[in-house]
Amino acid sequence: MGAKERNATSAIKIFAAVVFCYAVMEGFSINIFSNYLVDAYNVSDRVRGLVETPRELPGIFIMFVLSALAMYSDVTLAVLSQLLCVGGLLVMGMMGPSFPAMIVFMVIYSTGTHLYFPLESSIGMSLSEEGKVGETLGKLKSCSTFGYFVSAIAVFFGFRSGFFDFTTKVKMPLVLAALSSAVAAVLLMSLRKALADAPKREKSKLLVKRKYVPYYMITFAYGCQKRIRLVFGLWVFVKLLGYKADFTALLLIASAAVGMVLSAQFGKLLDRLGLRNALLFEGAYIMFMFGAFGVLSRMLALADGPPSTLLLGISILIFIGSDATRFFEMFHAYTMRCIAERPEDITPSLSVGQAVDHVMAMAISPLFGIVWAVWGPHWVFWMASASALFQLAAGWHFSRPCNLPEEAA
Prior knowledge:
The protein is an all-alpha fold. It is built from 15 helices and no strands. Helices cover 78% and strands 0% of the residues.
């Protein structure tokens, strides 16, 4: 193995550690943020919904931030993202700010997380070997899922034992989240040093191109599907079955354990199928999984008593299968890589896709809440199933193999 290959392998390993640390940070923060709001500030249901607006807004304006900072490398921007997370989390975790001040530092933290989202995919693809992009992204997703798995177990036992408590002045989960982000920042600085000799490339400030509409169309549909998965998937177990937080925590642990295997397989599938067939597979998978979730939720809503052991087992399997749709994000990043006119367009265009995703997510939650209440939970999942037509249409659009841009490190 030559020096170049050794450097590439070392860079991938460093970035895999970054991905793991970032996932641990999210497991100690955003995954239990609702608990933090209730325990620390006793927010009402209405206020909880309103908090989502400032928390999600960075996902929309981050494309303008990336455009303004176009002169910096992706790795440098990733360091900045982690430092923003550290700053926001430390104040929320150690200083017990007032509710308005907490909102300010929540936005700082959220800006860091949303800045990091497109950078993770872009950096991961730039470090991949040609022909093994899907495999590399799949391995990185496995590292991420393992981070969620570790943090979910720590959260479960931490709150069960009383070591974690959001009613005390020091919120230990948020402090640990800040520490994990700080480690990620140090690792990213090491990665930047390892890539110091890599050729530089001109950064693109262009935010939107007509050619990239298929990618935006996919993220538009995925924003709908993701919100239904995140909000209404678990709501079936909480609202229809009456399970408490300890059961949902175990459910997420089980999903993460399965996901560590599935994410790598999805990545290899992307390399094996190619872009067109991968998107067709995604559309068919989402259509089937959310369609099955709709049938299940209708059965549970009409049932007179608790579900049988068999039906509960099927419910858990369907939840885990639908939760795995998060791994399709690597398909979307690869789509952007395939259609990009030049490598410099990838990161800013991924940020546009993120903005489209978040606009859809913020708009769809109230609408589907009404659909759930008026027409029944099954229609929420069936509408998500129908939205997979966007992925199928995008797949049919790419009738020929994609033209990969020349990679620059």
